[in-house]
Amino acid sequence: MRILAVTNMYPCEAFPSRGVFVHEQVKGLRALGLDVRVLFVDRRQEGPLAYFRMHHKISSLVAEFDPDAIHVMYGGVMADQVARCHQGRPMVVTFHGSDLLGENLSGWTRKIISKYGVYCSRRAARAAQSVVIVARHLTGALNGAASPDKIHVIPCGIDLERFHRMDPPVCKQKLGWSARSFHVLFASSNGDPVKRPWLAKAAVAQMDNADSPPELHYLTGIANANVPVWLNAADVLLLTSMHEGSPTVVKEALACGLPVVSVDVGDVAERIEGIEGCHVAQSDPADLAAKLGSVRRRAQRLDCEARLKDLSILSVAQRLKQCYEGITREGTAAPRFASTEGCSLSGIRPANLPKPAGGACDDRIPMAS
């Protein structure tokens, strides 16, 4: 089966930490024997007009590669534009969070742009033959744009061969962290206000020093290959986001046995339900500090690896493959849109993109583009 994957986030030499979760998903699909061609739309480099220059390139790739289906791996304007030129091939769109929820804590300009992106996401969902959401709560954000029979809840998977329990004291020593302190790891995203770093900082500030003073560490700009070391060195993962889809870092933390304290956001409550040592807190510094204190007093790693088997990259790839098989059997692709001959190709990079030199594909980035 041939799949044309369209994404605006993908690791490259210039930005090796961008779109690692997409790269992992493609890797899983290829491991199952699917022939996946990646079309990278470099919106950050070329600007938002890159989305409106896609039509001719997609037409050319469809003619050359002859895909059985097109998978748009993020919503917004990109997904809407692909829906307008998908050449009658069955189309899947994956929505991750901000592409359906908007960015309500950003400045006015970004808010307006994100609202347009949400509008485009819903329009793309109507045109798609299958819709993937990474968490169940995003169904409501579709606002009826997709019928229940074509919605699939498929979170991004994690590489369980890399994310696993390691020796915390050894990992602390590697990072130069004090063995005496209580290390709080904040799932930061380069200053994104949606993550509410001020709330995390305020919560840690309300903790007493006791015999194990708290230290707050920001998981930003860390090579993905090193993230397991950080997760195993930390004593707790703290999440304070205003909204999320299905945060990958939570699943990675659980795989490493790291306790999680989080506000009730995305699918986090579902992921940590029933796991002793994990807590859902109110969006209040005092309650967050109290829950962090409970983790510090317990002073134990988690034992929940068995719950994560269905979230391996191969398990998730298998579910996506079933989704592709369903829409290609049905043959329900929409009619072709008008020809787009003459469109500029600036900002588009097609490839079965190789892993950049030096293992750079193993870096991490924020989910929103």
What do you see in this structure?
It is a single chain. With 369 residues, the protein is an alpha/beta fold. It folds into two domains: 2-157 and 312-362, Glycogen Phosphorylase B (Rossmann fold, 3-Layer(aba) Sandwich); 168-307, Glycogen Phosphorylase B (Rossmann fold, 3-Layer(aba) Sandwich), CATH 3.40.50. The protein is built from 14 helices and twelve strands. It has helices at 20-31, 43-46, 55-65, 77-83, 98-101, 108-127, 138-141, 168-175, 197-205, 227-233, 248-255, 268-272, 285-298, 313-330, and strands at 2-7, 35-41, 69-72, 91-95, 130-133, 151-153, 182-186, 214-218, 236-239, 260-263, 279-281, 348-351. α8 packs across α10 (227-233) and α9 (197-205) packs across α13 (285-298).
Give the SSE layout.
Elements: E1 2-7, H1 20-31, E2 35-41, H2 43-46, H3 55-65, E3 69-72, H4 77-83, E4 91-95, H5 98-101, H6 108-127, E5 130-133, H7 138-141, E6 151-153, H8 168-175, E7 182-186, H9 197-205, E8 214-218, H10 227-233, E9 236-239, H11 248-255, E10 260-263, H12 268-272, E11 279-281, H13 285-298, H14 313-330, E12 348-351
Parallel strand pairs: 1-2, 1-3, 3-4, 4-5, 5-6, 7-8, 7-9, 9-10, 10-11
Antiparallel strand pairs: 2-12
Helix pairs in contact: 1-14, 4-6, 8-10, 9-13
